[in-house]
Design a protein that fits this description.
globular, 278 residues, mainly alpha, Methane Monooxygenase Hydroxylase, Chain G, domain 1
């Protein structure tokens, strides 16, 4: 064998000195060197990787949610269905990711907690943007991101834009359903509020799915999405409770108690309320 030539392995290319490699394409030099534990404790790496990978999945969720909203604005629902289904599956992935973090015991977390300062998942601008695009809006929470101009501007735009569900309601109106004018001209910066005209429209869709099949499928995709989001939130609070009990969070919230209150938030209220009327 010529020692100056790279070895052959079942025809695989072995020399990437002059071309893009797998690591180059994925930017692995940056990704795999972005973990900087601050404590001497072995378990901090788990904590960092857990949250970094969650942020990557959230980046993909936002990519899909923004695209789905654009498709809905154009009345092009088929691509939106695929995107919404993908977001729900990403949330499933994040639910199972909590199983890994749950291997951290209270004693192990206590060893790294002093090194976290006041950093907290509450400060995740991507999670906040996901909540805003899904309709759980709160202008007061922009203050958390005031020190980061780009994130603040992005969240401010998300706050003021129609949510994914607002676009679904506007779509119902374009399809000829009688939606109350106040709902169609709502302040987009406020959280979603239940509306009887929207409930009546969705009820009509569910009572004649063969006539309104695309809207019927959209409604079910939204229900799938909210269900997945609820599981994600629930798994979060149970993991936090398992590791820190009812201590306050590092970011100043009431920890598990605060997270439990978030479980009560309903994103698409009419889609769940109508089921009692069917």
């Amino acid at each position: 064998m010529d020692r100056d030539k790279p070895a052959d392995w079942h025809g695989a290319k072995m020399d990437f000195s002059q071309t893009m490699s797998y690591g180059d394409y994925l930017g692995l030099d940056q990704v795999l060197t972005a973990q900087h534990p601050r404590s001497p404790d072995h378990n901090e790496m788990l904590f960092i990787v857990q949250h970094q990978t969650s942020e990557l999945w959230m980046k993909l969720m936002l990519h899909e949610l923004h695209a789905a909203r654009r498709q809905m604005q154009q009345d092009d629902l088929a691509p939106a269905f695929k995107m919404l289904a993908r977001v729900a599956r990403i949330m499933d992935q994040l639910v199972h990711a909590w199983d890994v973090l749950a291997t951290m015991t209270p004693t192990e977390y206590s060893a790294i907690r002093p090194y976290l300062g006041q950093s907290s998942g509450f400060q995740s601008f991507q999670y906040r943007e996901i909540e805003f695009i899904l309709g759980n809006k709160n202008p007061a929470l922009l203050q958390v991101h005031a020190g980061r101009h780009e994130a603040h501007a992005r969240l401010d735009a998300a706050l003021r834009a129609p949510s994914l569900y607002d676009e679904a309601v506007l779509l119902l109106a374009r399809q000829g359903f009688a939606i109350d004018g106040a709902r169609l001209n709502a302040d987009w910066a406020r959280p979603t509020a239940a509306d009887e005209s929207v409930k009546a429209a969705w009820l009509a869709v569910y009572q004649a799915p063969e006539k309104h099949w695309a809207l019927y499928e959209l409604a079910e995709k939204l229900v799938d999405l909210e269900t997945a989001f609820r599981f994600w939130r629930f798994r979060h609070v149970t993991t936090v409770e398992r590791i820190i009990g009812f201590k306050s969070g590092t970011g100043g919230t009431a920890g598990a108690s605060y997270l439990k209150k978030m479980l009560e938030v309903v994103l698409f209220p009419e889609l769940f309320a109508l089921r009692t009327a069917l």
